[in-house]
Write a structure and sequence with these properties.
By secondary structure, the chain is α+β, with helices and mostly antiparallel strands. 30% of the residues lie in helices and 20% in strands. It has a 6-stranded antiparallel sheet. A hairpin with an 8-residue loop joins strand 1 and strand 2. The structure holds adenosine-5'-triphosphate (ATP) and magnesium ion (MG). The site of magnesium ion has 2 residues, from helix 1. This is Chromosome partition protein Smc.
Length: 200
């Protein structure tokens, strides 16, 4: 499974709906400073609900909505709403149809060659709302997180390696570094289960 494309709409610097394709093996994004490269990663973190733990660069969720006067802090008019969709290629069936159906709480999810995870944040006068969709079915964050965990993508995981993470790993104690390796190798899960078993 890999990210096939990302669709950003009114998200951060992407004021117009923008579809960014990714290759299966390796994709490099280049561009001048401030052109929106890191905003693309923020889009992935936002849509997959990984934002809180993996350090998305925004103080509040509504800062992620495109604001034409971003630099001079002028307030914008019109709908305050941002959407990001991550399109995963699942032709290798990393996730079985039954797993997707289960997470979506519906049979109506298509053929699951594509898994589309979409998040929308909407600002109203005195509040904001966040919505998640799985193949166009409305779901909760926990449904998305449970599904992604079955594909080895977790908020604590190192599926996304942020700037500074490498330095942090180098400066860790050997024990803490070992915990990361256990996590990536999938051993940590069994440690937790073993502890639970002993506790019983
Ligand atoms: P660098 O090479 O310096 O890392 P970058 O390509 O990663 O740059 P980003 O950090 O992705 O750049 O983009 C920063 C730009 O996004 C800034 O110009 C900032 O004004 C703009 N930006 C961030 N949030 C918003 C927003 N809500 N509305 C409009 N523009 C925004
Ligand atoms: Mg950057």
């Amino acid at each position: 499974m890999y990210i096939k494309a990302l669709v950003l709409d009114n998200f951060k610097s992407f004021g117009r709906k923008t579809k960014i394709p990714f290759y299966e093996d390796f994709t490099v994004v280049t561009g001048p400073n401030g052109s929106g490269k890191s905003n693309i990663i923020d889009g992935v973190l936002f849509a997959l609900g990984l934002a809180r733990t993996r350090g998305i660069r925004a103080e509040k969720l509504t800062d992620l909505i495109y604001n034409p006067g971003h630099e001079d802090d002028a307030s914008s008019s019109g709908p305050r709403e941002a959407t990001v969709e991550v399109i995963l290629d699942n032709t290798d069936r990393t996730l079985e149809r039954s797993q997707v159906v289960n997470a979506a709480g519906s049979d109506d999810v298509g053929d699951v060659d594509e898994i589309r995870i979409r998040r929308r944040v909407k600002e109203t006068e005195d509040n904001y709302y966040s919505y998640y969709y799985l193949n166009d079915r409305s779901v909760n964050l926990s449904d998305i997180q449970d599904l992604l965990a079955q594909a080895g993508v977790t908020p604590e995981g190192y599926n996304v390696v942020m700037q500074g993470d490498v330095t942090e790993i180098i400066n860790m104690t050997p024990y803490a570094r070992r915990e990361i390796i256990d996590e990536i190798a999938g051993v940590a899960e069994f440690d937790a289960k073993k502890e639970d078993a002993f506790a019983e």
